[in-house]
Design goal:
With about 525 residues, the chain is α+β, with helices and mostly antiparallel strands. It is built from 5 helices and 34 strands. The chain has a domain of about 325 residues: Methylamine Dehydrogenase, Chain H (7 Propeller). α1 crosses α2. The protein is globular and about 115 Å long. The termini are far apart.
Length: about 525
């Protein structure tokens, strides 16, 4: 679609399913930082990387030790590494370009989500959120893990162990806890089962601030916007909440130290809540007031202007889109398949969703042409009208422009070497080369097809040597040898003989007919000669 005829007043969000991707049974998805590659974790433990520009498979990562479903997938900042978590309690770090496994670590519990540290180009730390255990920081080089605190004591100044819930049979179990890094990876924001957001310095495990959530419901998802200015939480009370981050980017730890000193000697739990009120402030709440649905995989758009969430109801594929002001602007309805994961493209208005059946649907904007949106003086005509042009309207250089002096300095040197920074990726380290595309590698034919090709070629050579099996009666009674199309040269190599044209075949057929007629005329003569010989004898 030509960008010059797109109406800028239309909402910059997807509207219809443009295409779907199919490869095995996919469970989770993630874009790289530029949105040029899409990684999907499959049910068989493999990870397939799609080229989002061509919608073709660029690479498939598979470890023979892992055959369990992939639970989450995460790119490194510059796209050279991919971290996947699997249902067999493993974490696997891949090198994307070579397709080789860097390391594999087995945890005590099944990780539901794993996120690489966002501040490094080759991260060695990751944040894992297991099914029945507190979130932990895992060192991918050594395999060591450090549990994070998920609660603060109300009576003492110390911290209490992670919260446990007793089930009806008396067995103590953990509530799954959501956590994420902030934009530059200096802090971890954790949502616990008490309905609180904990700000944790993961280097020493200290809780620096606590932000209570209205209602106190269990936090299921927590995620930052790309610019780091907004934090999204999804709770069990079926409400998506947006918080504005009040801490300065790249300087959060020092600011927290100053806030801690200013609070003085106050009860530890109260002090943490006071500091928390100066870290995050509630900005918006989103919910479906009529159906009261639970939400699946909520997230921000690439620019942070839109909030998207999938319906967790079985048998429906609905995606809700709100603007940041809190208005519901669109409900996307897909096939009758439950939605299990979704992601918004980092740059363009695309939403990618995963269905329960393992298909990946690509939602795109339905553009409509509106020429007057870019040219206010453009007039759309209902029917043809006669137009009388000016005398110099179609001249190469109109007289009105000849009088004007050129505003461009033709002597100014134009810089064509330096690269301008993209505002969307303003924090990019230009010294670090970013992996945006993967080279296409042709796939080998299946083994069965190769065997068939080898068998047919051997038969062809055998028939060429014998001559009899491949001889068949062709059109017009001609004897044709299929193997004769292969000729052997002086070096012993076989080369293909050119197939004769239809004209040549017609001429050959005429020659055969003429020769057959002449042979028929010659037959009686030969017979009479034989009779004369017999008589004389």
């Amino acid at each position: 679609m030509n960008a010059s005829i797109i109406d800028p007043l239309q909402g910059d969000f997807p509207e219809v399913i443009e295409e779907y991707l199919e490869h095995g049974c996919m469970k989770c998805i993630a874009f790289n930082r530029r949105g040029t590659l899409l990684a999907a974790g499959c049910n068989d433990g493999s990870c397939v990387i799609w080229d989002f520009e061509t919608r073709g498979i660029a690479k498939i990562l598979h470890d023979n030790e892992c055959s369990s479903p992939i639970t989450s997938i995460c790119w490194s900042k510059y796209g050279h590494r991919i971290l996947v978590s699997a249902a067999d309690k493993s974490l696997i770090l891949w090198d994307v370009m070579s397709g080789k496994k860097i390391t594999r670590i087995v945890l005590q519990q099944t990780p539901l989500q794993a996120r690489l540290h966002p501040g490094s180009s080759t991260p060695s730390l990751c944040l894992a959120c297991p099914l029945s255990c507190a979130p932990m920081i895992v060192d991918l080089n050594t395999g060591n893990s450090t549990l994070l605190k998920v609660s603060v004591s109300e009576t003492s100044n110390g911290l209490i162990p992670p919260s446990r819930n007793k089930s009806s049979d008396g067995i103590t179990s953990f509530t799954p806890t959501a956590a994420c890094f902030n934009k530059y990876g200096t802090l971890v924001y954790l949502g616990n089962s008490k309905g609180e957001i904990l700000v944790i310095d993961y280097k020493n495990g200290e809780v620096r601030a606590v932000v209570p959530i209205t209602g106190g419901s269990v936090v299921k998802n927590i995620v930052f916007s790309r610019n780091g200015q907004y934090l999204l939480t999804n709770s069990n009370d079926r409400v998506i909440r947006i918080y504005e981050n009040l801490l300065p980017l790249k300087d959060e730890v020092r600011t927290l130290d100053e806030l801690n000193e200013n609070c003085g000697d106050v009860n530890n739990s109260e002090k943490l809540k006071v500091i928390g009120s100066k870290c995050l402030i509630l900005f918006r709440e989103f919910q479906d007031a009529i159906t009261k649905v639970h939400w699946k995989a909520p997230c921000f758009s690439g620019d942070g202007e839109w909030v998207v969430g999938g319906s967790a109801c079985k048998g429906e594929h609905k995606i809700y889109i709100w603007d940041r002001a809190g208005h519901l602007v669109k409900i996307l309805e897909g096939p009758k398949e439950a939605l299990i994961d979704l992601a918004w493209h980092p740059v363009h208005p695309f939403v990618v969703s995963v269905s329960l059946n393992g298909f990946v649907y690509i939602w795109a904007k339905d553009y409509t042409e509106n020429w007057s949106a870019f040219a206010p003086d453009f007039k759309e005509l209902e029917e043809n009208e006669e137009y009388v042009e000016r005398e110099d309207e179609f001249d190469l250089i109109p007289d009105t422009e000849k009088v004007k002096a050129p505003d461009v300095n033709e002597d100014e040197e134009v810089d064509i070497i330096s690269v301008e920074k993209d505002a969307t990726f303003s924090d990019s380290d230009m010294s670090q080369e970013e992996l945006c595309f993967l080279p296409a590698t042709p796939s080998r034919d299946p083994l069965e097809q190769q065997d068939k090709c080898a068998e047919s070629s051997s038969k062809l050579l055998d028939s060429n040597n014998t001559g009899s099996p491949s001889e068949e009666a062709g059109p017009n009674g001609l004897m044709m040898n299929h193997a004769s199309s292969l000729l052997e040269d002086d070096a012993g190599r076989f080369k293909r003989k050119r197939k004769p044209s239809e004209k040549v075949l017609e001429l050959q057929a005429e020659k055969v007919k003429k020769s057959s007629k002449s042979s028929k005329l010659a037959k009686p003569k030969n017979k009479s000669l034989v009779d004369q010989d017999n008589g004389s004898g």
